[in-house]
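From the methods appendix. Each design record in this collection lists the tokenized structure first, followed by the designed amino acid sequence. Records were kept in a plain field format so they could be parsed without special tools. The example shown here is representative of the layout used throughout.

RECORD:
FOLD TOKENS (187 positions):
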């Protein structure tokens, strides 16, 4: 964890893992701590993720924090204003420009905290998250609990036959699975 606090010094933190591993909870926790410290905070989520709320980040455990839903990564840059801390949930859903946006925000002295899936349902790297991991100063990998055996889980098992990479859903479509219990989809 970074301990340097200087409003002219920015950095990128990435919280990644499988579904149901507590990524959004950890993002909310960090953003609330920044608010308690009276830092200006701007919070964003992709408009495509309206599972629980259109204008809040909501964890599967029902913790929530107000957020601005945006359609493009560039909107985050435009709408972050004078914020010292920028939070971004479900970062894997943004186009590749999210990398440039996060880099620009950090270079402008902002603390950028991103949360997202590092693997898709095929256990393949998801979206721009691998590139964000490469440029981040801090990475937190969260683990869920395997729904089959109770072991630490780092994979997301899709329960439906849909083969699109992006299918927004929760426990009705996905389960957390460990390496042993995960079953790769047929080609």
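DESIGN:
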């Amino acid at each position: 964890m970074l301990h340097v606090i200087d409003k002219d010094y920015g950095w990128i933190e990435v919280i990644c893992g499988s579904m149901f591993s507590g990524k959004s909870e950890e993002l909310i926790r960090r953003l609330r701590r920044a608010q308690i410290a009276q830092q200006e905070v701007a919070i964003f989520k992709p408009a495509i993720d309206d599972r629980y709320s259109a204008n809040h980040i909501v964890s599967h455990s029902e913790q929530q924090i107000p957020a601005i839903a945006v359609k493009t990564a560039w909107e985050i840059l435009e709408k972050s204003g004078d914020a010292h801390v920028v939070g971004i949930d479900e970062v894997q859903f943004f186009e590749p420009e999210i990398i440039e946006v996060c880099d620009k925000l950090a270079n402008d002295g902002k603390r950028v905290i991103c949360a997202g899936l590092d693997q898709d349902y095929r256990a393949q790297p998801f979206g721009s998250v691998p590139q964000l991991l490469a440029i981040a100063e801090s990475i937190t990998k969260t683990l869920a609990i395997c729904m089959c055996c109770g072991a630490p889980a780092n994979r997301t098992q899709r329960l439906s036959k849909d083969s699109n990479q992006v299918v927004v859903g929760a426990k009705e479509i996905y389960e957390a699975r460990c390496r042993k219990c995960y079953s790769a989809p047929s080609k």
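APPENDIX NOTE: The chain is about 20% helix and 25% strand.
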